[in-house]
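== Fold encoding ==
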Amino acid sequence: MREADGPRPSRLHTDLKSDAEVAVEALRGSGAACEALVRRFERPVYNLIARLVQDPGMAEDLTQESFIKMFRALGTFDPQQRFSSWLFRIAHNTAIDYLRQRRPVTVAPHMDEDDEERDPLTSIADIAALSPERAASNRELAAALDAAIDRLRPEYRSAIVLRHQEGLEYDEIAHVLDLPLGTVKTYLHRARRELARDLSAGGFGPETRSTDRA
């Protein structure tokens, strides 16, 4: 007999639950819950890893590796914690481990948080104006931004992707990257500044965006 259209009952059941609830069910051995976790996070995890390693094929392999690690470590997950942050930390570490095997990963020196307020470039480095979602109507700008993100240092790239593509809060990013909150703010500040400079050098400065919106 032909299966009726629409999601299976087990899938519908898990789709109505929070990430943490589904994770708990997966730990108890629910196959539907395991599938739900992969379905919910496969694309975000791949996007994060692909941004870091810049190799689509390797990103797919590392995504699979990340989920294997996730399932093995489910017993350590705290349901009071945000599941996406916990999983992104696994994915980030998996990608960084791969990069370290290929070349050393440099870490930027800490910058005092007050420097962000004194930096005159902060006003033109507003990521709300630079995010891919806002730039979707302008394909050239979106492509330029995408290329600019890929040119960022790995630690800056991680912070930008987690904040402005995955929507994590600063403290969640600090947990994912295993960094002090002040360092995360520094990375985001410097990444935004570099993106603004890169886009301005490519002809996508504030004046250009204002003209486009006119």
Notes: The domain at 9-102 is CATH 1.10.1740.10 (Rna Polymerase Sigma Factor; Chain: A). Residues 31-53 form the longest helix (23 residues).
